[in-house]
Amino acid sequence: MVTDLFVYGTLLPGDVRWPLLERYVTGEGTSDAVAGLLYDTGLDYPAAVFDESATTLILGRCYSLRIDAIDEALRELDIEEDTVDGLYTRVEVTTQNGKRCWAYAYGTGLDLTPIPSGNWFDRP
Question: Which of 39, 59, 100, 107 could form a disulfide with 47 if both were Cys (CB 3.0 to 4.6 A apart)?
Answer without folding.
Answer: 39
